Amino acid sequence: MYTEKVMDHFMHPRNVGEIEDASGVGTVGNAKCGDIMRIYLDIDENQIVRDAKFKTFGCGAAIATSSMATEMIIGKTVQEALEVTNKAVMEALGGLPPVKVHCSLLAEQAVHAALWDYAQKKGIVIEGLKPPVNDVDELDEEEG
Ligand code: FES
């Protein structure tokens, strides 16, 4: 039921870990399944994501999407990173089974939460960035 790419990122996740003194850290969960994801960003003075790491206490699809999402945002500006949607991550993975789509929202929202944390610390505004939610389940109705 999973594509080869999903299995690859699940079995060999990229960018697992933490960043010390990260520019931004974001944690989101899904109250329904109890899974939690944390994303760390290292952002340089030109607002480019130099590095991204994650820790995911969750299902295989959540691990695969966090792995792919971190790969996709490294090297991007904060504005471009904000535009990496869960749909784009899923497409890059060759798709997810419908019941696992909500897992990809964790990755998108954890990135947003980390960007928000960065913007707060720097006192800047990232256009289009909304305050993060702690529980992505609140978003399911809107976006799921
Ligand atoms: Fe919870 Fe996938 S089942 S994130």
Please compute the radius of gyration using only Cα atoms.
Answer: 14 Å
- Between the first and last Cα atoms, what is the distance in angstroms? 20 Å
- Ligand names: FE2/S2 (inorganic) cluster
Helicity level = 40-55%
- What class, by secondary structure content? alpha+beta
Strand-residue fraction? 15-25%
Q: What is the N-to-C succession of helices and strands?
A: HEEEHHHHH
Biggest sheet features = 3 strands, antiparallel
By DSSP, the count of extended strands is 3
Low-confidence stretches: none
Mean pLDDT, rounded to whole units?
A: 94
> What is the number of helices?
6
Going across the biggest sheet, name each strand in turn.
1-2-3
Approximate shape: globular
Q: What this model shows, in words?
A:
- The chain has 144 residues and is an alpha+beta fold.
- It contains 6 helices and 3 strands.
- It has a 3-stranded antiparallel sheet.
- Bound molecules: FE2/S2 (inorganic) cluster.
- FE2/S2 (inorganic) cluster binds next to helix 2 and helix 5.
